[in-house]
Amino acid sequence: MKPRRRKHGRRSPLASVALVLTGLLMTGGAYALFTAATPASASVDLTSTQTIQEGKKLFAANCATCHGLNLAGSDSGPSLIGVGAAAVDFQVGTGRMPLAKDAAQAPDKPPVFNDTQVKQLAGYVASISPGPGIPAASNLTLTGDATKGAELFRINCAMCHNVAGAGGALTEGKYAPNLMETSPSHIYEAMLTGPQNMPVFNDDNITPQEKQDIITALKTQSKSETVGGFALGSLGPVAEGLFIWIFGLGAVVAFTVWLTAKAN
């Protein structure tokens, strides 16, 4: 019986698979280039009528249950009168709001809304009652004096956030968060609005230039290498002492047991 010959001009199944994979790779590459060239969100005018109207819709659907349609608050949420766009941008932009469940403190988590929607909510709240605004880009250039900023941070912030900005425990289950991954705009907004247990550092307490110095110091430190070995979370002598107690003394005890066993 003669072997069956493949008909000329018929495409191999492997060729079809290769064609599909090539198409997927080209599509994915084109999409990646497009998204890289396109900003994540266009600049949003917080005072425009469209921004405020869109923010009003988002607020009514997602926030009014706790904060009230008139922003006056309720038993489930505080009043938002006078908090300003900065507080909304911080709380919603860091995922702290909407609050997932009652807790001693609202944790930061992936935000529910995209950046445009966050700005729309901020614009709507600010339109009802003005308050601290979102910091200008000129205040977030990271060109401040890192040395002066580190000194200001030690004086005003290190008692809660740790001298390395690694955060720390407070009372009643509350805590000061780690600042190493926090964006410059959110750090600035936190100083302006005093979220959670944090005091408010308005421009009379810490000037805009000094705020930029502090942010510059934090971001410079976050990029610095740990020259002393393991950072151990940069939590200071407690973590370091615990490490030595467990591993250092543990090694000494193990070595002593081994010597005793050898002697016997």
Describe it.
It contains ten helices and two strands, in the order αααααααββααα. The protein has helices at 13-37, 49-62, 64-67, 84-93, 115-128, 146-156, 158-161, 184-193, 208-222, 237-263; strands spanning 168-169, 175-176. It is elongated and about 85 Å long. α2 crosses α5 (115-128), α4 (84-93) packs antiparallel against α5 (115-128) and α6 packs across α9 (208-222). It has 264 residues and is mainly α. Strands 1-2 form a two-stranded antiparallel ribbon.
Topology of helices and strands:
Blueprint: H1 13-37, H2 49-62, H3 64-67, H4 84-93, H5 115-128, H6 146-156, H7 158-161, E1 168-169, E2 175-176, H8 184-193, H9 208-222, H10 237-263
Antiparallel strand pairs: 1-2
Helix pairs in contact: 2-5, 4-5, 4-8, 6-9, 8-9
Protein traits:
264 residues; mainly alpha; heme; Cytochrome Bc1 Complex, Chain D, domain 2; two-stranded antiparallel sheet; elongated
Short structural summary:
This protein has 264 residues and is an all-alpha fold. The chain is built from 10 helices and 2 strands, in the order H-H-H-H-H-H-H-E-E-H-H-H.
